[in-house]
Amino acid sequence: MELMNKTPIRDRVNIFFELCDFGINSYIKTEKERFPNKSIKEIILEMHKFHDKMRTLGRKKDGNKL
Amino acid sequence: METNYKNAFIQLINFLETFEKEKGMNYYLVGGILTSIYSDARSTTDIDFVVDLFSVNLTIANYISLLQQNEFFPFQDWTTTIDLAEKTKMIQFLDKQERIKLDNYIIDKDNKSKYKRIGPIALERRVRIKFADIECWAASKEDFILSKLVFGGWQDYSDALACWIRFNDILDVRYLEKFSKELGIQKEFKLLKSGIDDPDDYFKQINGY
User: Fold this and answer.
1) Which among A14, A65, B61, B62 is placed 20 to 30 Å from B157, CA to CA?
2) Spatial distance between the Cα atoms of B45 and A23, rounded to a whole number of angstroms
């Protein structure tokens, strides 16, 4: 946390963008290797569904969407 | 490496900033995108934001046609998107690369649930930030914490806790106390303040088991 606070905001934001892109690109790559017949669009839509499921873990019933 | 996320962010902010200047429709960013500046940076695949459509007398259908004109894409088709948005007051769509999901929450002042009440509360105190050298509006740190406690999932608690630990010296605790009471999440805020750093313990106490 201390290191995070010492890192300039611009660098933190750039790290964040790289982290997100790395996560998305490697998810697509892995799924494409597992399911070569799936289109990129299908993989992306499934990725978002999966991401939603993970981020709403533990939320109460009505809190899944805003 | 492709910079999908940043491209989506730039497209979205250009749209929202233009729309705010031209039509006066207020917006702010919330959720995972703010973790790098407010909390502990983590990966995410979407961008969450809130818009105040009804204060500028814009219907959901008209707003969605603007999204279409600005090269955003639907998940399925725009008709289904409108139907869902009318029911949930939330619009989900994709950026022009069709990679990044944009979760567009609509402020609904008539809905008294805590999940909707946080919208106008955070709008009142939205802050101007510089994100990737682009100026835009975001929820304040305090409202970031409150909205995370309102939703109350595992990831939400980790995000809120990291913000609390990181900015403990500058957070407006009185504000947090006042609005956690108003939103009915005093117990959640009390536990956060007590410094419970294990989400397992937090959920045991929240759920009483």
Assistant:
1) A14
2) 8
